[in-house]
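Predicting holo structure, adenosine-5'-triphosphate bound.
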Amino acid sequence: MFIGIDDTDSPDGMCTTYLGLVLKERLESIENPILYRLNPNVRFKTRGNASISMRAQNENNKKIKKIVKDTIKEFAMVECNNTNPGVVFIDEDFNSITEEILSFPLKCVRSFVDISDAENILEKYSIDSFYLGNGRGRIGALASAIVCLVDTIYPELRYRVLPDHTYELLAYRKKERWGEKRVVDVESVFKADELTYPSTWDTVDTVNKELVCVPNTKCPVLLGVRGESEKAVISAFNMMKHEPIEGWVVYKTNQGTDLHIQNPSSNIDLKEGESYVVRGRVVSEPSTIRGGHVFFTIENEKEVKCAAFEPTKQFRNIVRELRVGDEVRVYGSYIENVLNLEKIEIVSLVNHELRNPLCPKCGKSMKSKGNGKGYECVKCGTYANSKRVVPIERPISVGLYEVPPCARRHISKPLVRMRGKCVHPMR
Ligand code: ATP
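Done. Tokens:
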């Protein structure tokens, strides 16, 4: 049986992924735990719009469902109005792998769906589910359960739901410590990063000197190690010194894959709350507004306003160096008519500019005589027809740049994973 779960936490505590650990113990064993991140722009989300799923085999179905439902009732933070838990159970012998089923997870990652969309599928395919509150959690639960089913039983169709994947080891605190300050040995975490990067990433932010892998919230997570393989995340975790833990789970995940990014056929198609990579020419010089947010505009068929917000820290220094005429590819979410940058590829840089000609006699800059009337040296009276082309030094070069680890969204692909491309990773 494939179990999908979503929406059990609130800003005051819990984390849906923690139920993976609880169910691992209560169901005696689980297989292929999946952590599937959905559209990062969904407004109902608590934090990173995570859903989980797993396969459970060694109990009878009735017993599995009872254990899962009891666990949700015990842990879900339903006192919060915005917590609407949902669980979906897909049987082992489910074989209606239709287009509707296969396309649902990606739809949840890239756009918005209604509760009724999930309900229609559940009813049409007789998929059992359970919910509390308004049942919104069944959206993510269904998406995640489909991913686990396809990934486990139909690997040839994996490219439709999980075309790329990474791993995250999530270690959970003992219950009596929830809400208290986390005890993690900073030095050992920096060391673990140094010894395992680039097989693991986003453990620390070396420039901003932050532990990225340790959350600040009241949730049960002590830390999470992200990496390319199960082996890599376990080995990094084993090097870290920390408070006693309740246990850990390694999830297979779409984190760090850019699964949310779409390549639109035209800039005109950009939709609110969806994420894109868009190519264009810079048409307005970057400008910094109060608060440190940097804005500029690119143009392709249409103008697209882009922003590097203050939390993206030193990434803004790259963006500030852009000039009119540079060719770029911008990656990010389109929110309130602004593309919020997660990455930028500088495709080509303008490396010449036009300046007023110099007087051949005195060497001073000539003055324009008016539109189309040439240039003249006010002192010597010398004349020139046109401006001169001057090479300019650019402090940036072509290639991909990204926000630092402390500003990275869970689903964004870090450049360290973009092998074979010209990249400037931030670490
Ligand atoms: P955490 O990451 O801490 O587990 P969260 O950020 O995942 O929390 P949830 O509390 O799970 O946030 O809330 C997200 C809600 O949005 C869930 O009910 C989920 O089913 C729903 N949802 C997810 N993706 C979409 C989507 N694409 N369209 C509409 N609703 C969605």
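The first strand starts at residue 2 and ends at 6.
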